[in-house]
Amino acid sequence: MKSRLVILGGGESGVGAAILAKQKGFEVFVSDRGEIKDKYKSVLKNIDVEWEEGGHTESKILNASEVVKSPGIPDTVPLILKLKERGVAVISEIEFAGRFTDAKMIAITGSNGKTTTTLLTYHILQNAGLNVGLAGNIGDSLAKQVAQNDKDIYVLELSSFQLDGMFEFKADVAMILNITPDHLDRYNNDFEQYADAKFRILQNQNENCHMIYCEDDEVITKRINEIEYKGTKHPFSIKKQLQNGAYLDKDNLIIYTNNKTINMTIQELALQGKHNLYNSMAAGIAGKVLELKKDVIRESLTDFQNVEHRLEEVGKVHGITFVNDSKATNVNSTWYALESFEHPVVWIVGGVDKGNDYEMLKELVTDRVKAIVCLGKDNEKIHDAFEDIIETIVDTDNARDAVNMAYQLSQKGDTVLLSPACASFDLFDNYEDRGHQFKKAVKGL
Known about the structure:
Elements: E1 4-8, H1 12-23, E2 27-32, H2 38-46, E3 50-53, H3 58-61, E4 66-69, H4 78-85, E5 89-91, H5 93-98, E6 104-109, H6 114-127, E7 132-136, H7 142-148, E8 153-157, H8 160-164, E9 173-176, H9 191-199, E10 210-214, H10 218-226, E11 232-236, E12 245-249, E13 252-257, E14 260-265, H11 274-289, H12 294-303, E15 312-317, E16 320-324, H13 331-339, E17 345-349, H14 362-368, E18 369-375, H15 380-386, E19 393-396, H16 399-408, E20 415-418, H17 431-443
Parallel strand pairs: 1-2, 1-4, 2-3, 4-5, 6-8, 6-9, 7-8, 9-10, 10-11, 16-20, 17-18, 17-20, 18-19
Antiparallel strand pairs: 12-13, 13-14, 15-16
Helix pairs in contact: 1-7, 6-11, 6-12, 11-12, 16-17
C-alpha cells in the first residue's frame, strides 16, 4: 500500500512537495484553507494530484501517513493538534525534500539579514562555478528542485517556522546571523522558545560540519557556550579580533580560516552599512569553508546586487532620496535601516504589529528622524511610542498618500524611508506589494 502524504498549503513549498512526492510514488493530497493560485492548480492537475481549496476536509487529512505543513500554519491550530494526537508526523517541505538528495546544505537563519546573506552566499558559489541551488524562503522550492534538477549544493534561507518542522535534516554549514524578538506571537510570547527554534539549525550536525555565527550577538554566544558542539565554529565580529572567522581591523575586513587570510577594505564591499558588514562576513566565511578561491570571494563581495525591497534606493526627486525597505517587517530590521542613514529621515512606518517594542528605536529616531508618516489601519502604538520625541506624526492608509505626505515634509538632502517594522497584510497583499506600491507612488511624484 502506498504511503499517503497530505500537504497543507498549496503555495510554492506545498506544490514543490507534491511534485517530489508524486515522483517518489506517494499517494498525494493537497489541501489549502485559502485559494490556490492558478499557476499551482495547473501544476497539480498536470501531475494528477488531488487538491482542495477554501477549507480542509478532515476525513481526507487525518488518514495521512505523514503531513507536510506550510510554514505559515501555526502548530497550535486544531487540525495540527489532532494529527499529532494520532501520532501522524507533521514536517516541513525542507525536511521532506532533504531525504531525497545527497547535496551539501548551507542553511542560513536569523531574525534579520537572512535573504541578503543567502543571496550573497549563492552569488559567491555561482561565481565559483558550483552546481548550486537557492531555496527555502526564496526561489523555487527545494522539493521541486530535488525532483526536477537536483544540485550538488543548496543555499537555504530558513525561518524559525521551517526549522520547527525539521527533525532529521542536517546542515553541512549552518549560519545563525542574529536572534532578536520577532514572531513572538507564534512562540507564546516567549523569546527563549523562539531562540530554541533558531538553534534547531544545528541539530544532527557532526564533526565534519561548520557553524558560522555572530560573536557580537549576546543571545547566540551565551547559548553556544552552553552547548557541546562537535563541528568547527566560525565566529564573526565587528568589535574584536577573532581566530577562524571574520573581524574588522580599522577599515579592513579580515576573513581568517584554515590559516589563510582574505583582506579587503570595507569601502570595496558592494553592501554598505553595519548590518551588511555582518552579512558580508558570514557569506565570505562560507566561501572559505568551501575552500573557494580568494579572488572569487573578493570579487563576489564587491559586485553583488542587493535584493528588491531591502534598503533599495528607488530614486531622487528634487534632491530627496526615496528608499524602499518594505521587507523590514520587524523592529530590529528597521533599527538596521535607520542606522544606515546620517541625513534627516522622514520615516514611513506601520502595518500589522507583531507585538512590537519600539523602545530600542527611540535613540535612533531622536537622532535621525525629523517626521513620521504612519501607513496602517491602527497606528496608536506608533503615536504612543514616539509622540514625545517627534513633533510631526501623520496618519495615512495607502502608499500614494504616504509618499505624498512624506515628500511634503521633506527638503533637499533628506531621505524618505519606507521601513515599516510591521507586517503588511492590513493594507497590502504582502511586503512585495507594499514595496511595489511605494515605488509606483514615488514615480508618480
